[in-house]
Request: fold
Amino acid sequence: MRSISPIAGVVAAVLLMPVFGFAQVGQGTVQGKVLDRDGKPLQGAVLRMENTGTHQIDETKTNKNGGYSLSGLFQGKYKVTLIVDGHAVMVRGDVVGDDLFVNALQDLAVNFDMRKAPSTPPPDVAPVRAANKGKSGADKTADAEMRAAFNNGMTAMKAQNYDEAIKQFQLAAQKDPTQSAVFGNLGLALLRTKKYNDAVDALRKSLALNPADAGVHASLSLALGEDGKTDEAQQEAQEVAKLDPSLAGPGYYNLGAMFLDRGKPKEALQLFKKAIELDPKNALAYYQIGIANFGSPDTAPDAITALEKYLQLEPNGANANTAKQLIEAAKAAAPKK
Reply:
């Protein structure tokens, strides 16, 4: 079986095309508004944020417009309690179906309307106090040093200084080994420096603290794949699909691009197809399907169909000119009817 003559430089450029990354960013924001029993903005109400994985507590109060915002929260699952005059009134995030997840991709909106408060209020919480109150001086110092190291690590990540990021996240982990976001970002930095085995270890530690973090599962999937553990990588991709379908498409795409780069087009095709099932507008998945089918006259028609679909979705995309060249080459080599 003869192969299609490649266009000079095209195939190599495609195989080296970067794939999506999963940033396990660790600081997010919760914001919202509180209305009193008359439907008016309530000033001075306390909002208590509790990370259900680490039980870290942070608090803030509503302003004159009933609004509030609290930043710098570590990524994870949270419970938010509305406290008025020292008593708990309403709780969000404590029952199935009302899960609250903080991440840095978007602000989490948590609103309270006391007109909808339950007739039986939730149990009162411990006396209102800031997260650090009651801690020893050594604990306060360690907490401050952990947050400083974490922030330094995030700054280094944004600057793509991954070696420095690794150093800072490792320091943060030493100060407080209970923060899943620290290990998640450490794993991502290790992944970016191709220290795949170490990345897998760090990401697994993050998931031990917060097993429901789809972003970390996605990063772990990629790290396992790069480490040659393809079956485990696909298992993690399936876990992402269960936890957060919006991340599953890019997750399957990542694995597919990795398999394609390693010369395994059949495995890659299956993963790209899964990505498209979850997101029919994933133009890059169609593009990569075209690449995976490019090379044999028997699969040339499939390559043409996929590349034409890519052009429909991204007519002016970065790969548009390459797609057009590949289509012409595939048409020239396709079996004549």
Summary: Residues 137-158 form the longest helix (22 residues). Strands lie at 27-35, 46-51, 57-61, 67-74, 76-84, 87-92, 100-102, 108-109, 112-113. The chain has two domains: 10-24+137-333, 27-116. The domain at 10-24+137-333 is CATH 1.25.40.10 (Serine Threonine Protein Phosphatase 5, Tetratricopeptide repeat).
